[in-house]
């Protein structure tokens, strides 16, 4: 898919004013009529007020909440190639120059065809997309994350003093064709979006999984959408779920000292390590498991997978780091990492970026798939590590010190949470926005802003959480308690 912005063809204008009375209510804050001229080369549009504008440009209008400040709406096209053809779609919409007076209300975005009466489906079954203005940071329903990204922005106001705000909606897989759109209507209304703990700092609502009883939960991994889960028990077995943790199946792999488990983004490829022991893998979401004879027998302590489950990194406590590029069938010992007391590891999507923590040691990073390593930060009691899919955002916990953060692939670090807890575990969403951290006999903490701020989950009480996971889309938290070597699983969808 590629965005095309051309400026050669004349914009064809349509008279949209005859339609406006059909949509204008006391809540309408802006109406833009759009005409998309399609060819294999260019896409043009016209906005109302008689202004012919091309894609990538916008129109300014004052609206109900903005007073004399004009908002700017900028729709953009996306062109999807096909054999000997292609299709233009509504790819994104940007609204800019929104003053603070518009905070705490929702805006609803709809698109209409030429008839002016049929609201078009933007994605899924959604014809009216609500966007909530939370003091200049914009949100929509968290369940829409698989269809779009919503990015907030701020800049000096144009035509007024102070700071104004805006947002851009990018449709991940656009389905609304350009020829189906004649108007984009934006209306304001009462807030209907309830922000959950994945979006803002607040306590989550948790569900205790009692059907499995109390066990010594050691590690959990999740698919990107949070539907498929895998959890391992130290001195027990392997359990999987296909309904976000509502029900679980004992896979009867065998009672072993399972220590860590990882999952591909679709939840089909799972790999788990035994301490002491070897590595086991599944290619059918945990239904069956195979001993990976190419792995050594050792005190495996940590493991991480990229999205498709082909590239893996794992570490042996007081041993070396190992990598695999064939989903765990064969492993390469990275002796340049040194033999250390490894406690955490993560691998980027392309398998090039690696980061690992060592207790009573340093953080080590690699940008060449583990061929060479660079020591980072200071000697601390590093207990666990997590990273975003691209390997740029990292978070690591230090026992009785706090949570350290990096936004540059581990080159530099800062203390993001200085709470003196017995930190034991941490995990992040694919983009590093949502984080969850567990402690030994203490509280669980979550962050919805890449670790800038943290919320204590007081309703859970004191737990010993070695097992903690966030779904890739950031819409599911799962933890496993091992308090007194026997605790419950807990799930939260906000």
CATH architecture of the largest domain: 7 Propeller
Shape: globular
Question: SS-based structural class?
Answer: mainly beta
Most strands sheet:
10 strands, antiparallel
CATH class of the largest domain: Mainly Beta
Question: What proportion of the residues is helical, as a percent range?
Answer: under 10%
- Which segments are poorly predicted (pLDDT under 50) over 5 or more consecutive residues? 1-62
Tally the helices: what do you get? 1
Overall average pLDDT: 86
Number of strands: 39
Instruction: Assess the beta-strand content as a share of residues.
Output: over 45%
Termini separation comes to 33 Å
- Rg: 25 Å
Number of domains: 2
CATH fold call of the largest domain: Methylamine Dehydrogenase, Chain H
Task: Write up what this structure looks like.
This protein is mostly beta strands and about 500 residues long. The protein has two domains: about 15-190, no CATH class; about 205-490, 7 Propeller (Methylamine Dehydrogenase, Chain H). Helix content is about 0%, strand content about 50%. It has one helix and 39 strands. The chain has one helix at about 15-25; strands at about 30-35, 35-40, 45, 50-55, 60, 70-80, 85-100, 105-110, 130-135, 135-140, 150-155, 165-170, 185-190, 205-210, 215-220, 230-235, 240, 250, 255-265, 270-275, 280, 290, 300-305, 310-320, 320-325, 330-335, 340-345, 355-365, 375-385, 395-400, 400-405, 415, 425-430, 435-440, 445, 455, 465-470, 475-480, 490. A hairpin with a 6-residue loop joins strand 27 (about 340-345) and strand 28. The longest helix is centred in the N-terminal third of the chain and has 7 residues, at about 15-25. The two termini are about 35 Å apart. Residues about 1-60 have low confidence and may be disordered.
């Amino acid at each position: 898919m590629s965005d095309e912005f051309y400026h050669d063809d004349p914009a064809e204008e349509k008279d949209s004013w005859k339609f406006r009375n059909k949509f204008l209510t006391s809540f309408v804050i802006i109406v833009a009529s759009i005409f998309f001229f399609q060819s294999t080369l260019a896409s043009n549009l016209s906005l109302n007020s008689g202004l012919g504008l091309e894609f990538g440009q916008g129109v300014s209008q004052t609206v109900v909440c903005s007073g004399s400040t004009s908002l700017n709406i900028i729709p953009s096209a996306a062109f999807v190639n096909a054999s000997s053809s292609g299709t233009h779609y509504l790819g994104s919409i940007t609204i800019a120059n929104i003053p603070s007076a518009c905070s705490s209300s929702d805006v609803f975005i709809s698109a209409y065809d030429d008839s002016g009466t049929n609201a078009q489906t933007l994605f899924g079954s959604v014809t009216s997309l609500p966007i909530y203005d939370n003091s200049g940071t914009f949100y929509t329903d968290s369940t829409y994350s698989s269809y779009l990204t919503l990015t907030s922005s701020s800049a000096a106001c144009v035509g007024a003093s102070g700071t104004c705000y805006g947002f851009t909606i990018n449709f991940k897989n656009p389905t609304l064709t350009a020829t189906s759109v004649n108007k984009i209507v934006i209306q304001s209304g009462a807030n209907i979006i309830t922000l959950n703990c994945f979006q803002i700092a607040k306590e989550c609502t948790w569900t205790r999984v009692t059907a499995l009883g109390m066990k010594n939960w050691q590690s959990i991994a999740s698919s990107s959408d949070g539907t498929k889960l895998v959890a391992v028990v130290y001195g027990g077995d392997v359990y999987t779920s296909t309904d976000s943790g509502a029900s679980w199946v004992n896979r009867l792999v065998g009672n072993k000292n399972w220590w860590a488990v990882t999952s591909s983004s679709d939840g089909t490829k799972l790999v788990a390590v035994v301490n002491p022991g070897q590595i086991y893998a599944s290619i059918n979401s945990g239904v069956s498991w195979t001993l990976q004879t190419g792995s050594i027998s050792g005190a495996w302590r940590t493991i991480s997978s990229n999205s498709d489950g082909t590239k893996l990194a794992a570490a042996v406590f007081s041993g070396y780091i190992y990598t695999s590029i064939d989903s765990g069938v064969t492993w390469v010992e990275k002796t340049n990492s040194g033999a250390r007391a490894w406690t955490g590891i993560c691998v980027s999507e392309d398998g090039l970026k690696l980061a690992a923590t060592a207790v009573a040691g340093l953080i080590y990073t690699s940008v060449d798939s583990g061929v060479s390593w660079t020591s980072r930060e200071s000697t601390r009691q590093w207990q666990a590590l997590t990273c975003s899919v691209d390997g740029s955002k990292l978070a690591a916990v230090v026992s009785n010190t706090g949570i350290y953060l990096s936004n540059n692939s581990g080159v530099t670090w800062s203390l993001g949470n200085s709470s003196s807890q017995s930190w034991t575990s941490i995990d992040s969403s694919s983009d590093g926005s949502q984080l969850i951290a567990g402690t030994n006999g203490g509280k669980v903490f979550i962050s919805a802003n890449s670790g800038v701020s943290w919320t204590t989950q007081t309703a859970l009480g004191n737990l010993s959480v070695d097992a903690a996971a966030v779904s890739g889309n950031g819409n599911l938290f799962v933890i496993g308690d091992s308090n007194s070597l026997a605790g419950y699983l807990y799930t939260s969808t906000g």
